[in-house]
Amino acid sequence: MNATIAVQMTRADLLKLRKKRGTLIWALVLALAPLFIYFVVRAGQHSSNAGRYAPAGGNAGYLDAVRLLALFFGPLAAILIGAEGGAQDAAAGVFRDLVVTGRDRAALFTTRVPASLALCWMVVTAGYVLLAVGTYALASGSPTPGTASMLNGYGFSLLSTGIVCAVAVGVASLTTSRPATLTALIGWHLVASPILVGISSLGSIRELILSQAIGHFSPVRIGAGMHGVSVTMSQGTALIVLVGWLAVFLGLGAWRTRTMDA
Amino acid sequence: MTLALETTGLTKRFGERAAIDNVDLRVPGGSAFGFLGPNGAGKTTMIRMLLGLTHASAGSMSLLGRPVPAERAGALERVGAIVEEPRFHPHLSGRENLRIIAAARGPAAYARIAPALTRVGLADRADDKVKKYSLGMRQRLGVARCLLADPLLLILDEPTNGLDPGGIQEFREMIRAMVEQEGRTVFLSSHLLDEVEKICDHAAIVDRGKILMQGAISELAEGGAQHELIVGVDDPERAMAVLEGCEQARGSRRSDEGLRVVLADGLTSEDGAAPAGAATAGVAAAAAEINAALVRSGLAVSRLEPVRQSLERRFLEVTSRLSDSTAEEVKA
User: Fold this and answer.
1) How far is residue B120's CA from residue B217's CA, in Å, rounded to a whole number?
2) For residues B93 and B112, what is the distance between their CA atoms, to the nearest angstrom?
3) Does the global pTM surpass 0.90?
4) Is the CB of residue A104 less than 8 Å away from at least one CB of chain B?
5) To 10 degrees, what angle do helices A58-66 and A21-48 make?
6) Best to test chain A binding among B91, B99, B152 (most A CBs inside 10 Å)
7) Domain count across chain A
8) Is the ipTM of this structure higher than 0.90?
9) DSSP SS3 for B2
10) How far apart are CA B108 and CA B98, in angstroms?
């Protein structure tokens, strides 16, 4: 597959995704609504009692907002988009028509990843714009993060959601079912991961939890607790865990796409 | 004769059951070829193997002279196919769905989108979402999707399923035009005998995964079948007595249409492979002799008409024989 066809196919996959209005709207809601509500509530609290409640924006607001976007709601949006990107051809029954073109099945799988990432990162960028506006507009004179911090936070948000999105593409390509993928990954993200993190007797096994490994790349202190970083590991270990998750699920998705009866 | 599609010993097994059993198929280039069989005969499985959607258990196949799966990508470059009902992304327009396939086929396919939509009569509705299309429109969009490959070979699986009579007629005309005017080969699977008879030049009859017969439609319809005449006479009883002494007639019986005369054997060869023209000439000569014998006996002959052998009758003959004997014993 030459570069021209790869770009064409990625654009075609992106077309399918961005025209899926339900998925796009829900992904935007997940990326924007929690941040909006967070800033509105915090601003209301601050305006009602400035002595007791800190400003909604500024450094404190920024840290909370990054946690919301990069580690909680952003990954949910990424799962929605990745599940759609990985399963949409099989779900619509169009996969066989793509196979009949003679195009290599590995290529059909590969182009799903950048297309899903592109849409995921558009959505996350929209969320980050809201985050930045809230951070500065609602600072009420308190210290605000510098440009470097803002860029680092943006990069981390893209990294976090991108990895989750790619894993979702792999899982959806493996199951060829969007509902199954959403159930498995959202269940893992919202329920299983926090529970496993809290079981200290699991020891170093908890290093394998994706959210914990991602959290180690945060440029800002995102703290411990639910969806924070509670498991200690080296940066190298965290990197190996991330690569492992990507390799396993993208590998399984590619294998299934290559071998399944279309 | 160039073959557009060829299989040798092609077999597909699901466990112990052979869905396709040692099939040798020859599809001449530039023809409309019907792959005819009852539901569950193995037609779709065969097509899925040809297109690489599922693996063959044994045997070899080639499309447009290229072995599959060894040169599958090259072989499919000029092949368009609809497998079962055409499926699309319902949230995209017809044009966008074609763009998806064009992206996988390569840059040249983009330029064919507009002509293909025009060719199938969907240019005006190309920007409507596919979920608003009728089944007939989706079938036509499926054909447009095939045309993106500028196909030398079209493989269509039950293409008229769900179409209304007008849609079926349009579809037939489109297929014939593709064959006769554009020189494409069309491989069309169907359980509808009438459809195959009206569209195709050649056909194979398949049942329980085996090819029972294949060849030109006229050969298939006539091959191995007995030839009959309908004879209108003023005195059928006396005519039957006269025909008993006529060597061209093997027997006769009365029917609603008149006297039905079974002609003697020898108009076709044992395996039914005699050219259709030879059989037709034989029937005409026998009819002339029978007419002369009746007239010499003082009978007034008002009608003398060969009974047209239909593919439907032949299809029912060969598929019903299966229950009595093995498929290998059934020869055209």
Assistant:
1) 27
2) 16
3) no
4) yes
5) 150
6) B91
7) 1
8) no
9) coil
10) 13
Question: Is A98 close to B104, i.e. CB distance below 8 A?
Answer: yes
Note whether B91 contacts A20, CB cutoff 8 Å.
Answer: yes
- What phi-psi label fits residue A203: left (phi over 0), alpha (psi between -120 and 50 degrees) or beta? left
Cα of B276 vs its chain's centroid, Å: 17
pLDDT in tens, A102-148: 999 999 999 999 999 999 999 999 999 999 999 999 999 999 999 99
Q: Which domain holds residue A58?
A: 3-259
What is the structure's pLDDT at B164?
Answer: 83
* pLDDT per residue as tens digits for the range B12-60: 999 888 899 999 999 999 999 999 988 888 999 999 999 989 999 999 9
**Across the interface, do A92 and B53 touch by the CB < 8 Å criterion?**
no
Nearest to B72 by CA among B50, B48, B101, B89: B50
Subunit contact B76:A94, Cβ cutoff 8 A? no
Q: How far is B65 from chain A (nearest CA, A)?
A: 15
* Residue-by-residue DSSP string for A208-253: G-HHHHHHTT-SS---SSTTS--S---HHHHHHHHHHHHHHHHHHH
Closest CA to A140 of A39, A214, A65, A21: A39
Q: Which token pair is B239?
A: 């005519």
Distance from CA of B289 to the nearest CA of A (A): 57
Residues 6 or more apart whose Cβ sits within 8 Å of residue B64: B4, B5, B75, B78, B79, B152, B153
> What is the predicted pLDDT for the residue at B271?
44
Mean pLDDT of A96-103: 93
- Record: contact A92-B74, CB cut-off 8 A: no
Q: Which of B53, B57, B76, B128 to mutate to test the interface with A (most CBs of A within 10 A)?
A: B53
Q: Residues with Cβ < 8 Å from B301, sequence gap 6 or more?
A: B231, B232, B233, B291, B294, B295
* Structure confidence at residue B279 (pLDDT): 61
Six-digit token string for B97: 């769905």
Q: Which amino acid is at A126?
A: A
* pLDDT of the residue at B324: 47
pLDDT tens per residue across span B268-304? 444 444 444 556 677 888 889 999 999 999 999 999 9
Across the interface, of A19, A96, A104, the residue whose CB is closest to B91 is: A19
Residue B159 CB-half CA count within 13 A: 32
Cα separation, B37 vs B208, whole angstroms: 9
Q: Which CATH class is domain B3-217?
A: alpha beta
Res A215: pLDDT: 87
Give, in degrees to the nearest 5, the angle at Cα A238 between A65 and A144: 25
Confidence label for B325 from pLDDT (cuts 50, 70 and 90): very low
Could you give the CA distance from residue A55 to residue A32 in angstroms, rounded to a whole number?
A: 19
